[in-house]
């Protein structure tokens, strides 16, 4: 590394020295040029500033000469009047020539002894009043308008003003008050006031005493500085120069005229030509301060300008141009020297760069081939030698151990059924010189298989005839195409309506055929936790494979056992390599005995439990990610198919079975009954429809809850299912009603045996949640064809017979008879008429007297209800009272009977009969009515009947329905 640095230093030493000297000279020249440009600019600016200063001083002198001329007016005459003063000032034309003037005045010297005479002659009093040794009142004032209020003002009243006046008197020189601010309405302006002493004409003025003796007074002027200096820099107020004028204060001595920065305070500013008053000059501006003396004061001028005005753009860039040009020349000169000294080294560097580029290009080509899975090779037609790129070696399966592959070695890797075609395509390309394009497979040493797309063309290489070819690894594309083809084929199989096992068997056959497996099987775990082999297929008719499939279907395993159990436990694919006949898992041992070497198990979700696909191959197979992914995709399809089939089965079951008991529901009952009728007609047999209803079930359901009731219904359904024959049907009709269809009966009496079993099994106690429950059942039986020619009629007639069995005392059965329908129709007519009997006034009360046998007197009457039907005539209470109780009409009828009975009892008393006790029956429904007490009280109050004359009759059965409620009610009554 040190030798390289030394060599580099030798090559670059002289160029670097030349470059350094040139750079330093360039910097020196640039700096000198910059200094000279700045000096010249400063000289030009100083000249401009001096010119401006002279203009300002000349302007001040112009205004001062007006005061000198005004003093000369008083020297030309012993007595100057106000009108003469006015005419003189007017004649000056100050507003046109010197617009800065605001006022001119004259203040005489008035000794104290002459004050009264002065005031009388001028017509105004001196202000402020007071006794002083002398007075200096403002007597003449131009312009007079607006200044009347200051006439007579004593300028010597203030000590400072008096001192200035006396100093001007003693020196004879001009004096100034300095900066003043004059307020004119809402506006204000900066001004100056100057005064010049006036002496009597002809008197000597050489000494202070002489000047005091000759002192007549003083003339003064006030002017606006802004107006005085307006236009001093030209008409353009925004020009490049800026002028500021400051009041520097009183002179300390005759030699103290200097532009001191302390004198240029903001409070001393009199004039600023800039529009932005009282703002400091920019940091890069050029300034010059000058001063002059006037009126015993120093006036300081600050002239400034932006550096851009003083130094032009071209002047600014000249130093930079000098520097850049110098550096450029130095760099060029150093480069020439370096080029002359490094020609050989540069040539070597170019060669190395070309070599690096070539290697980079080769590396990039290799990377591009790897990314595109595309390789290239050259075949020497004479020797059969193959020169392959790295990617071509990988695709064709030539590892580093094969230094110089041959064409024969390549052909050995091609499957035997494709080898001749590959050799023929290569020979055709060599013979015709035209491009040949074909596909083939290559078997790698590790057992994997690739699909290759090859292109071969005749070429020349170093003057020799050769074949140049490219190979592209098409394995992913081909596998994807095969996978899509297989999935499409499986999908077409799974949408058919064939038997599930047949469909799965065909799917296994397609998978084995497409993916080169010898045996395939589908395993499912049943409800007992055992793995059972379902559909299974082998591709060939090999006896060993057929025996393996047969044994597999006959065996079962625990779901956590062996390779299958491992696959289900991990929910992942299990690959089986080198199966051994003595393996620990019986299934793997059987596969090895059948000559199977490799296998794979793919678990899948479906069918409500564990399922898996299993495949075996006689050839050694290695775990292939694409193969496993394909099997997983197919397994997912089959799993979804099984889930769909399970869902369809569940839907069919739900649609045809009762959700509580699992028995057939009404639609299925109707279909089976229709089918049973057809079979009875075909076999010339009878069938019986048994309509079963549980007695007292509602009371159990209401008392112990619907959960207990549902459990009882399920238990009853199980009992009925157990006692029926295989060909009979039992269905839940609704609630606590069941329907049984008994087929193959020779006589109607054959049904009695089954009915007795049914009633007996229902009468056995039910033990539910610790309760021993007892119920009975009532059954109605209709016979085909005697009691109906269709299912609907048979069901209706069996239902009618069941109700007749309940009327007979329950826990029994009743065959249907035709008169039952007549009685049912009569009952329906009675119930319909009874609902309108109250409205039509068809009900009436008959009173049965109660006799005292000892006294032979009537002690009371009992109200008995009678019904006169418009068609049937008088209807017995035994017929309509039960109907009223079942339909709920008894409550309204009982209330009506109570009202009519009380009203009749009151009417008898009003007719002169002695009071008798009225007895009225109360039904069970009335007894449970929450408004019973209120209704009785309302009737007694309305009829004005003594409560002791009303007797309520209640049956024992009504009280026993709810004893506690009945006791409380009777106590309240």
Fold and architecture overview:
With 973 residues, the protein is of the alpha+beta class. It folds into five domains: 77-234, Beta-Lactamase (2-Layer Sandwich), CATH 3.30.450.350; 373-473, PAS domain (Beta-Lactamase, 2-Layer Sandwich), CATH 3.30.450; 499-652, 2-Layer Sandwich (Beta-Lactamase); 660-816, Alpha-Beta Plaits; 830-972, EAL domain (TIM Barrel, Alpha-Beta Barrel). Helices cover 49% and strands 25% of the residues. The chain is built from 31 helices and 34 strands. The strands form eight sheets. A six-stranded antiparallel β-sheet has the order 19-18-17-22-21-20. Strands 4-1-7-6-5 form a five-stranded antiparallel β-sheet, with helices on both faces. It has a five-stranded antiparallel β-sheet with strand order 13-12-16-15-14, with helices on both faces. Helix 14 packs antiparallel against helix 15 and helix 27 runs parallel beside helix 29. The longest helix has 74 residues, at 2-75.
What is this structure's SSE topology?
Layout: H1 2-75, H2 82-92, H3 94-97, E1 101-108, E2 110-111, H4 115-122, E3 134-135, E4 140-142, H5 159-171, E5 175-184, E6 187-199, H6 208-214, E7 215-224, H7 225-229, E8 241-250, E9 269-272, E10 286-294, E11 297-305, H8 307-310, H9 313-341, H10 343-372, E12 374-380, E13 386-388, H11 390-396, H12 407-412, H13 416-432, E14 436-443, E15 449-461, E16 464-473, H14 475-494, H15 500-515, E17 519-525, E18 530-538, H16 543-554, E19 556-558, H17 562-570, E20 574-576, H18 586-593, E21 598-606, E22 609-617, H19 625-656, H20 666-683, E23 686-695, H21 697-704, H22 706-723, E24 729-734, E25 737-745, H23 750-763, E26 766-768, E27 771-773, E28 776-784, H24 791-807, E29 813-815, H25 818-840, E30 843-852, E31 857-869, E32 873-875, H26 877-887, H27 890-910, E33 917-922, H28 924-927, H29 932-943, E34 950-954, H30 956-961, H31 963-972
Helix pairs in contact: 1-9, 14-15, 14-19, 15-19, 21-22, 22-23, 25-26, 27-29
């Amino acid at each position: 590394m040190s030798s390289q640095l030394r060599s580099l230093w030798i090559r670059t030493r002289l160029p670097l020295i030349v470059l350094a000297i040139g750079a330093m000279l360039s910097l020196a020249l640039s700096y000198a040029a910059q200094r000279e440009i700045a000096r010249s600019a400063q000289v030009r600016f100083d000249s401009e500033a001096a010119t401006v200063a002279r203009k300002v001083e000349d302007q001040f002198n112009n205004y001062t000469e007006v005061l000198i001329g005004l003093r000369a007016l008083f020297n030309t005459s012993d007595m100057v009047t106000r009108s003469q003063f006015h005419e003189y000032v007017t004649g000056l034309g100050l507003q046109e020539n010197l617009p800065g003037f605001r006022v001119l005045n004259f203040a005489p010297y008035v000794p104290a002894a002459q004050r009264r005479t002065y005031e009388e002659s001028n017509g105004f009093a001196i202000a402020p009043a007071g006794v002083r040794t002398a007075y200096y009142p403002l007597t003449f004032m131009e312009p007079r308008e607006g200044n009347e209020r200051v006439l007579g003002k004593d300028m010597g009243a203030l000590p400072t003003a008096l001192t200035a006046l006396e100093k001007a008197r003693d020196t004879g020189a001009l004096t100034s008050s300095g900066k003043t601010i004059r307020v004119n309405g809402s506006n204000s302006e900066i001004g100056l006031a100057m005064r010049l002493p006036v002496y009597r004409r002809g008197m000597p003025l050489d000494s202070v005493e002489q000047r005091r003796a000759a002192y007549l007074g003083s003339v003064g002027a006030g002017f606006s500085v802004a107006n005085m200096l307006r236009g001093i820099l030209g008409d353009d107020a925004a020009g490049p120069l800026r002028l500021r004028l400051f009041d520097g204060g009183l002179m300390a001595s005759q030699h103290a005229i200097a532009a001191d920065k302390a004198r240029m305070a903001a409070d001393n500013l009199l004039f600023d030509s800039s529009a932005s008053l009282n703002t400091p000059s920019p940091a890069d501006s050029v300034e010059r301060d000058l001063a002059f003396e006037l009126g015993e004061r120093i006036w300081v001028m600050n002239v400034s300008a932006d550096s851009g005005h003083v130094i032009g753009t071209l002047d600014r860039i000249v130093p930079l141009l000098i520097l850049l040009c110098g550096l450029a020349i130095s760099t060029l000169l150093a480069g020439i020297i370096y080029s002359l000294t490094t020609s050989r080294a540069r040539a070597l560097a170019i060669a190395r760069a070309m070599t690096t580029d070539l290697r980079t290009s080769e590396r990039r080509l290799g990377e591009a081939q790897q990314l595109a899975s595309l390789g290239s090779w050259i075949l020497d037609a004479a020797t059969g030698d193959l020169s392959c790129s790295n990617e071509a070696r990988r695709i064709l399966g030539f590892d580093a151990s094969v230094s110089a592959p041959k064409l024969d070695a390549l052909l050995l890797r091609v499957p035997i059924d494709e080898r001749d075609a590959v050799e023929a395509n290569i020979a055709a390309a060599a013979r015709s010189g035209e491009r040949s394009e074909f596909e083939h497979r290559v078997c790698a040493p590790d057992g994997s298989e690739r699909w290759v797309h090859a292109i071969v063309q005749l070429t020349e290489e170093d003057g020799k005839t050769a074949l140049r070819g490219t190979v592209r690894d098409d394995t992913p594309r081909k596998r994807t195409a095969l996978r899509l083809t297989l999935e499409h084929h499986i999908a077409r199989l799974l949408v058919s309506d064939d038997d599930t096992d047949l469909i799965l068997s065909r799917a296994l056959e397609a998978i084995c055929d497409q993916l080169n497996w010898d045996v395939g099987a589908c395993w499912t775990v049943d409800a007992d936790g055992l793995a059972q082999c379902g559909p299974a297929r082998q591709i060939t008719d090999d006896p060993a494979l057929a025996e393996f499939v047969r044994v597999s279907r006959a065996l079962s395993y625990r779901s956590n056992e062996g390779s299958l159990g491992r696959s289900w436990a991990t929910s992942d694919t299990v690959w089986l390599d080198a199966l051994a006949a003595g393996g620990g898992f019986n299934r793997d041992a059987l596969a090895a005995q059948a000559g199977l070497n490799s296998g794979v198990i793919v678990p899948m979700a479906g069918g409500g439990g564990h399922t898996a696909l299993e495949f075996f191959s006689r050839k050694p197979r290695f775990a292939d990610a694409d193969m496993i992914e394909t099997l997983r995709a197919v397994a997912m399809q089959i799993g979804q198919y099984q889930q769909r089939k399970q869902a369809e089965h569940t839907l069919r079951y739900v649609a045809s079975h009762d959700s509580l008991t699992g028995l057939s529901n009404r639609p299925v009952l109707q279909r089976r009954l229709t089918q049973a009728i057809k079979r009875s007609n075909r076999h010339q047999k009878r069938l019986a429809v048994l309509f079963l209803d549980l007695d007292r079930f509602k009371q159990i359901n209401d008392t112990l809850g619907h959960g207990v009731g549902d459990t009882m219904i399920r238990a009853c359904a199980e009992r009925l299912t157990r006692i029926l024959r295989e060909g009979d049907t039992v269905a839940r009709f609704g609630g606590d009603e069941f329907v049984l269809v008994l087929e193959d009966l020779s006589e109607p009496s054959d049904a009695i045996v089954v009915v007795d079993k049914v009633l007996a099994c229902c009468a056995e106690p039910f033990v539910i949640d610790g309760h021993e429950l007892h119920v009975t059942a009532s059954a109605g039986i209709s016979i085909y064809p005697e009691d109906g020619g269709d299912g609907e009629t048979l069901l209706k007639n069996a239902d009618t017979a069941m109700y007749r069995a309940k009327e007979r005392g329950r826990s029994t059965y009743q065959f249907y008879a035709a008169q039952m329908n007549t009685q049912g129709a009569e009952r329906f007519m009675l119930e319909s008429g009874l609902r309108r009997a109250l409205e039509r006034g068809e009900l009436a009360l008959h009173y049965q007297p109660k006799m005292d046998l000892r006294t032979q007197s009537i002690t009371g009457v009992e109200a008995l209800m009678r019904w006169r039907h418009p068609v049937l005539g008088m209807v017995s209470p035994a017929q309509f009272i039960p109907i009223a109780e079942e339909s709920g009409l008894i409550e309204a009828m009982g209330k009506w009977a109570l009202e009519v009975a009380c009203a009749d009892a009151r009417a008898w008393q009003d007719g002169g009969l002695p009071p008798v006790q009225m007895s009225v029956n109360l039904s069970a429904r009335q007894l449970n009515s929450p408004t019973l007490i209120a209704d009785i009280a309302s009737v007694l109050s309305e009829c004005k009947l003594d409560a002791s004359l009303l007797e309520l009759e209640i049956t024992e059965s009504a009280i026993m329905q709810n004893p506690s409620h009945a006791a409380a009610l009777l106590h309240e009554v």
